[in-house]
Design a protein that fits this description.
The protein is mainly α. The chain has one domain: Rhomboid-like (Rhomboid-like fold), CATH 1.20.1540.10. 65% of the residues lie in helices and 0% in strands. It has seven helices and no strands. Helix 3 runs parallel beside helix 5, helix 4 packs antiparallel against helix 7 and helix 5 runs antiparallel to helix 6. It is globular, with a radius of gyration of 17 Å.
């Protein structure tokens, strides 16, 4: 798997990261606009726990939001955390996102309350945050550990969201999104460490 961050100049890498995450967030706003125009009918396409039809929602749930306020609350974390992962390359961002998307969606489908529909990009935000917090520990990268410490101070309070307590909030999505991010951090961190050249004396 090719990683453009390995060969592209820093300026180009940053610009690519900005462009990709801006397009992704722009897509979320386009989807919410379409949802508003259709009378919020798209929201029913989210994850419906233990319903066979609800499995399709795993594909769509992170793109859907329960109104503009919900989307606005997710926008900054998604922009910041997605951008930071994209600095490691488009392929890495895509791979981490797939792991978080699938693990988060399946976890919600298996454990969420019956007769509920779970939507929102917060599953990605929690997964990306967990990945960024833990990747340096598994890859043994000092720079990544320092980034993780900084993010812990900035966004560590969000992790309370993996606990039940707030009505109408899918803590299951937060929890399993974070578990997906932790899995991705372990998986890719091990691979990065194995690929790192071994110093020879």
């Amino acid at each position: 798997m090719t990683n453009f961050a390995d060969s592209r100049p820093t300026g180009s890498r940053v610009w690519d990261a900005v462009l990709v995450i801006a397009v992704f967030v722009g897509l979320l706003y386009v989807v919410e606009l379409a949802d508003t125009v259709t009378g919020n009918r798209l929201d029913t396409a989210g994850v419906q726990p233990r319903e066979t039809d609800g499995l399709d929602g795993i594909l769509f749930a992170p793109l859907l939001h329960g109104g503009w306020a919900h989307l606005a609350a997710n926008t900054v974390p998604v922009l910041v955390l997605g951008f930071l992962i994209l600095l490691s390359g488009l392929s890495r961002w895509f791979a981490v996102t797939v792991v978080v998307w699938v693990v988060g969606g399946l976890g919600v489908w298996l454990t969420g309350p019956e007769n509920t529909v779970h939507i929102g990009a917060s599953v990605l935000a929690f997964g990306w945050l967990a990945y960024l917090l833990l990747r340096g520990l598994f890859s043994r990268s000092v720079g990544q550990i320092l980034v993780g410490v900084a993010l812990l101070f900035l966004y560590g309070g969000l992790l309370v969201g993996v606990l039940p307590g707030t009505p109408g909030v899918s803590w299951q999505g937060h929890l399993f999104g974070a578990l997906g991010g932790a899995l991705a951090a372990w998986w890719f961190g091990q691979r990065d460490r194995a690929r790192r050249p071994t110093p020879v004396r």
